[in-house]
Write a structure and sequence with these properties.
By secondary structure, the protein is α/β, with parallel strands linked by helices. The chain has one domain: TIM Barrel. It is built from 12 helices and 8 strands. The chain has an 8-stranded parallel beta sheet with strand order 1-2-3-4-5-6-7-8, with helices on both faces. Strand 6, helix 8 and strand 7 form a beta-alpha-beta unit. Helix 2 packs parallel to helix 3 and helix 8 runs parallel beside helix 10. The radius of gyration is 17 Å and the shape is globular.
Length: about 270
């Protein structure tokens, strides 16, 4: 069964990407539960057996139905985990509550949260607290939008990775068009992992696909995680794209299995020990 490392508990709506992401940040636990139920059959048809479920509503910790949402997901996919887009501007971080509510990762998203260099130290302080509690860190490293120079996510990654050494740091989307730069950080920092969501699909037809093969081989397939970024890419399409990429690049079955599920389970086992 496949472990999808990037699933949004959200049903994609019509409208601009900006409006879709805004909706994702506002959904209540009850609405997210309904969305999960709606998409459950698609996950199963794609062979998804567990996943890392992203919650973008930064106020969800105060939602009285959060426990019910997590119970519902875990009941269907028992080995799943949850990631919370974390509001680093809070006066009281209360990272302990994040852990108590069964989140395994906190996430930073440069475009959504408008993270500039002035925010880096505060994010590092939050990350150090998360590290002390055994929470992993996910950082969105897609490269795009008109804010691509103002909100430099790989500069944030480099700053965080310089100080955080004992917990996994997951670079969602593998750095996108800057995958080589993402690789340079991961090659030096062995706790940095890359995940495949959206990028393999988005850059089809470009020479970047050769770069992704080089990048994954260079850092080692044991530090690469399959992911879809559902609903922005459908689960079955993401899986088909990934398998096609592996076949075209003669990736061995053993390494495919690492990326599809073994690496994720090894990560979760590690986090449970911390």
């Amino acid at each position: 069964m496949v472990f999808d490392f990037n699933i949004h508990l959200y049903s994609k709506e019509q409208g601009t990407l900006e409006n879709q992401i805004k909706s994702d940040t506002e959904l209540s636990a009850s609405e997210l539960k309904a969305s999960f139920r709606k998409n459950l059959s698609e996950f199963r048809k794609a062979g998804i057996g567990a996943g890392n479920f992203m919650i973008f509503n930064q106020n969800i910790l105060q939602d009285p139905f959060l426990d019910d949402l997590i119970y519902t997901v875990e009941n269907e996919f028992p080995q799943s985990v949850f990631t919370l887009l974390y509001d680093f501007n809070l006066e009281d971080w209360n990272i302990e509550l994040v852990k108590k509510k069964k989140f395994s990762f906190i996430k930073f998203h440069s475009y959504v949260q408008k993270i500039g260099e002035a925010d880096f130290q505060r994010i590092l302080d939050v990350s150090l607290k998360a590290e002390s509690l055994g929470l992993g860190i996910c950082i969105d490293t897609s490269y795009g939008t008109t804010g691509l120079y103002k909100y430099d996510n790989l500069k944030l990654v480099a700053f965080i990775a310089e100080h955080i050494k004992t917990i996994p740091i997951i670079l969602l989307h593998s750095g996108g068009s800057r995958c080589i730069e993402a690789m340079l950080i991961a090659d030096l920092c062995k706790n940095v992992f890359l995940e495949t969501s959206l990028s393999l699909h988005y850059y089809q037809g470009s020479t970047l696909l050769d770069d992704f093969k080089f990048v994954y081989s260079k850092i080692g397939f044991e530090r690469v995680l399959f992911a879809s970024d559902f609903p922005y890419q459908k689960s079955n399409e993401a899986l088909d794209t990934f398998i096609s990429f592996c076949k075209q690049n003669n990736v061995e079955i053993e390494n495919m299995e690492k990326m599809l599920f073994n690496n994720a389970y090894a990560l979760l086992k590690f986090l449970k020990k911390t």
